[in-house]
UniProtKB/TrEMBL annotation:
Alphabetized InterPro entries for the sequence: LysR-type_TF_proteobact-type, LysR_HTH_N, LysR_subst-bd, WH-like_DNA-bd_sf, WH_DNA-bd_sf
Any one of the GO BP annotations: L-tryptophan biosynthetic process
UniProt-recorded Gene Ontology molecular function terms: DNA-binding transcription factor activity; sequence-specific DNA binding
Entries under SUPFAM superfamilies matching the protein: Periplasmic binding protein-like II, Winged helix' DNA-binding domain
Protein name: HTH-type transcriptional regulator TrpI
UniProt KW Metal-binding keyword: no
UniProt record similarity statement: Belongs to the LysR transcriptional regulatory family.
Lineage: Bacteria, Pseudomonadati, Pseudomonadota, Gammaproteobacteria, Pseudomonadales
Pfam families reported in the protein's UniProt record: HTH_1, LysR_substrate
Keywords, sorted A to Z: Activator, Amino-acid biosynthesis, Aromatic amino acid biosynthesis, DNA-binding, Repressor, Transcription, Transcription regulation, Tryptophan biosynthesis
Transmembrane segments: none
Length: 294
């Protein structure tokens, strides 16, 4: 009798599809296409010489052989995940937090010295990313970002604060006194600074204020929110941003928010894997919650 195992990629694809009861959800979790998961399952079925899934309406259903393999595969992969987590912690590996660059630069880094003093054992490593952050990625232990529900499966999401966005302007702007007196509807006639990383920010603010986004007049654009806010601090125009990202600038008087902030459906979230979470997540989560209340 051969002791050869099936291809591990095929087993991994099958385990995810069987656990989630969906090829589409498995593809999303594994960051591959629906077709790639289907092909891996066919490879596994050919290797084993038996069908693992059968058709049920528009979806799929496990066969008896599929249910048997699912139970074994789930147990094996779960033990592997648990052991790898224990080994990383035993090896004193740093805790890697994924965070968008703008949030990292404008909120997290100014507080990093205090965090290192409060949690010296954490050995935090920050990973900047402008893309969709997903704690299922193998290179991060958790993520901190603004996101909008519903939350994906396989994630433990802790909502830390509501996102509030609003226009900001520097007192160094040559027309500051005049512009600060404008009503929101009058503000829309001004050339407004905007960013490609969040093109919906101004239209969303306009909608939340009951105005018509067709009246917007976009001005200078920037690739990232960080650059946008640096331009605003330099007095180049009116920008828009989440309140948390300009809180330090407002406190220091570098920016002002004469038009206030409005709440959006998004939340500042700390997200980690639902299964086998790193125990250090709880300590960092508590620290973040307390810091946001300062």
């Amino acid at each position: 009798m051969t002791r050869e195992l099936p291809p591990l990629n095929a087993l991994r694809a099958f385990e995810a599809a069987a656990r989630l009861q969906s090829i589409s959800l498995a593809a999303a979790e594994l960051h591959v296409t629906h077709g790639a998961v289907s092909r891996q399952i066919r490879v596994l079925e050919e290797h084993l010489g038996t069908s693992l899934f059968g058709k049920e309406g528009r979806g799929v259903k496990l066969t008896d052989a599929g249910r048997r393999l699912r139970d074994t595969a789930f147990d094996v992969f779960e033990r592997l995940r648990s052991t790898c987590t224990e080994l990383r912690q035993a090896g004193d590996a740093p805790f890697v937090l994924g965070c968008p660059g703008s949030l990292l630069a404008r909120w997290f880094i100014p507080r990093l010295d205090r965090l290192n003093r409060d949690l010296p054992e954490l050995r935090l490593q920050l990973s900047a990313s402008e893309g969709e952050l997903d704690p299922q990625r193998g290179d991060v232990d958790a993520t901190l970002c603004f996101a909008t529900p519903p939350w994906p499966t396989g994630m433990r999401v802790n909502e830390l604060a509501a996102e509030r966005i609003g226009p900001v302007i520097s007192p160094q702007h040559p027309r500051f006194a005049e512009l600060a007196m404008l009503a929101p509807v009058q503000l829309m006639a001004e050339p407004l600074l905007h960013t490609a990383s969040r093109p919906q920010a101004w239209p969303q603010w306009v909608q939340l204020n009951g105005l018509d986004s067709a009246d917007l007049h976009p001005g200078q654009g920037f690739e990232h929110l960080y650059y946008l806010l640096e331009a605003a601090v330099a007095g180049l125009g009116i920008a828009i941003a989440p309140e948390q990202l300009v809180a330090d600038d407002l406190a220091a008087g570098r920016l002002q928010a004469p038009w206030g902030f409005v709440e959006t459906p998004a939340r500042l979230c700390f997200s980690s894997r639902a299964r086998n979470p790193d125990p250090r997540c709880a300590r960092l989560l508590d620290w973040l919650a307390a810091e946001l209340q300062r």
